[in-house]
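ok posting inputs for the adenosine-5'-diphosphate job
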Amino acid sequence: MSRLIIVSNRVQPPTGEGAGNQGGLAVALSAALRESSGIWFGWSGETTEQFTGHINLQRNFGVTTATIDLEAQDVDEYYNGYANRTLWPLFHYRIDLAEFESGFAEGYERVNARFAETLEPLIEADDLVWVHDYHLFPLGQRLRERGIGNRIGFFLHIPWPPHGLLLSLPNHRELVETLFAYDVVGFQTQTWLQSFFDYVTQEMGGSVEEDGRVTVGDRSILALACPIGIDTQNFVEASQSAPARYTCYRMKQSANGRDMIIGVDRLDYSKGLEERFLGYERFLSANEGHHGEVFLLQIAPPSRGDVQSYQEIRASLDSLSGRINGAFADVEWVPIRYVNRGYPRDRLAGIYRAARVGLVTPLRDGMNLVAKEYVAAQDPEDPGVLILSRFAGAVEQLGDAVLINPYSAEDISDAIKMALSMPLEERIARWRSLMDNIEAEDVMWWRRRFTDALELVPQPTE
Ligand code: ADP
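and the output
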């Protein structure tokens, strides 16, 4: 087995606080790094006055991490700028929020060059290099320019936009061309993969073969759909742990016989939170009989607070939740509990388990792991109902959820009503079908599927 080098914007070293407290991605990648004695390379999250290229090497719980500090201007232009104000909105179909600033693009190029420059000396002859996500599209090309001939893969965690939308990005073609420096490129779903094929065939005169080989000029890469999963076994165990059981018990006590609907999302405009609140408001307006019988717990820890569109969504949700509670609450009942903080994973699992309905309604999402976690945390004998947006990547695997159009308040309202009255037999049948997929295609499966494809690429010397 070749040594694996993982590169991502931020590095998540294992914390050793108990497996239940680590995200599935960190668990899977850490396991792969341990097996291959690999390295996880990325930004430390710290800033420095002047970029030096100094690498901070650390070993935690069997995993070696290599991190670099960036300048404040790098963070502004590359991370808050090009990654989160240009690419993120555009790739989530929010062209209205995308900002096109040449300074952002320059910062993005500069940081990718800095990543390449510092990473290069760490790469040995037979290493597999696996680059993650939209922060680092050009990294493979920068490494090739430095003479790295190793097998390099790229996985995109967010959606790939439709061809017509991508044309609005200045220098879109250069960005897509950088993908041809990789050997294997992975997308979360068939839909995003197809959008990539559309761009390559219509814009670059490329060709696509049935096995996913994509050729432009003299360069050929393998493109595949490789949906990420959760660490299912671990999450099921977390949901049965003592802290989870206690949290579940406390939630049920505080629900006081009412049905709980749960939403858990980073506070991000792609998650459809305003539309969700409006859908729930419509449900309350249309179903007076349910007043006092149900409540929505929305957990939404703030993210990317330096970016204005994130400040705006936060203000808008504060006002919307206040308005809905003001209109419907009475002395003994508050229809929305809106909480802006994070919880340890085992407690989150207990909260999911206490909820009759999981409401996952992103307007666009690369995958959406919360949907999978909600299902994995359920009691098999009395599972809750997952309501899922048709525009989440997870829908390709979780078609037996109650599917909705997140833009339609009526759809959300009808789905809530249906979920609350769904007979036990149907709940179990749907849950079993969802769980079969979540068990089979977990995060270890995802990691192997990608690294197996990369290992099959012939070495340049072979
Ligand atoms: P995204 O990666 O866009 O944030 P996902 O749904 O794919 O969306 O993944 C979100 C992850 O963050 C999940 O693993 C979820 O459990 C975790 N998470 C979200 N909100 C919280 C919270 N309040 N406390 C703890 N973990 C959270």
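notes: The longest strand covers residues 39-47. The pocket of adenosine-5'-diphosphate is lined by residues 23, 264, 266, 299, 301, 342-343, 348, 367-370, 373 (CB under 6 Å).
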